[in-house]
Amino acid sequence: MELESLKELIRDVPDFPSKGIMFRDLTTLIKDGAALQVMSHELADLYRDKGVTKVVGIESRGFIGGSILAYELGCGFVPARKPGKLPSVTVKKSYAKEYGVDTIEIHSDAIKENDVVVLHDDLLATGGTMNACYELVKSMNPKKIYINFIVELTALHGRENLPKDCDVTALLKY
Q1: Residue 142: which residues within 8 A CB-CB, separation 6 or more?
Q2: Radius of gyration (C-alpha) of the chain in whole angstroms
Q3: Block means of pLDDT (10 residues each) for the chain, length 174 residues?
Q4: 55 with 75: CB under 8 angstroms?
Q5: Distance in angstroms (rounded) separating the CA atoms of residues 164 and 148
């Protein structure tokens, strides 16, 4: 199975979560065992030689690919969650979304100065959530940060809202 053929397994859901939005549903890709293996290996191949020590997955769909990526690389996984979901001391970052303000948190002891971190989410749309996660992790002074997505919606220009000095990758582009 080729990487580009994974697009055929992603379901388009019109008008979700609101009218005018074409939602790219990755659950139809990850339920296919062969496709999940291709996706997993392709994600990991992007970072195998980069010395990654932690993968930060953004709630909630970023937990899926992020956990797989961490497993494939033999490194730790850190969940980035909505407020009040993590049980210990956290650091947080609020950010504007198209329909309000949201906040993301991680444990205050999750990232160390010697860490090389991949920030992962399933899909890049406008980039607001990922940029907030980047700023949060950057404030913890890791050695290096990479940004990764399974899918990028290029028409929304989300890359423009991400740091210019950071390597941003996406497996599939629409």
Answers
A1: 54, 111, 112, 113, 114, 115, 116, 117
A2: 16
A3: 93 94 95 97 98 98 97 98 97 87 96 98 96 98 98 96 96 96
A4: yes
A5: 14
148, 46 contact by CB (below 8 A):
yes
Angle at 146 between CA 160 and CA 157, to 5 degrees: 15
Centre a 10 Å sphere on the Cβ of residue 113 and count the other Cβ atoms it contains.
Answer: 8
State how far the alpha carbon of 31 is from the alpha carbons of 36, 79, 85, 97, 149, in Å: 7, 22, 26, 30, 18
Question: How far is residue 149's CA from residue 159's CA, in Å, rounded to a whole number?
Answer: 11
State how far the Cα of 88 lies from the Cα of 93, in Å rounded to an integer: 16
Q: Hey, what are 124's tokens? A: 């890049």
Which residues participate in catalysis according to the annotation? 61, 98
DSSP 75-101: -EEEEEB-TT-SSS-EEEEEEEETTEE
Strands 116-124 and 100-107: unpaired
- Does this model's pTM top 0.85? My answer is yes
Which pLDDT tens digit goes with each residue over 67-102? 999 999 999 999 999 999 999 999 999 998 777 899
Q: Are 137 and 56 in contact (CB under 8 A)?
A: yes
Sequence-separated (6 or more) residues with CB below 8 Å from residue 3: 38, 42, 171, 172
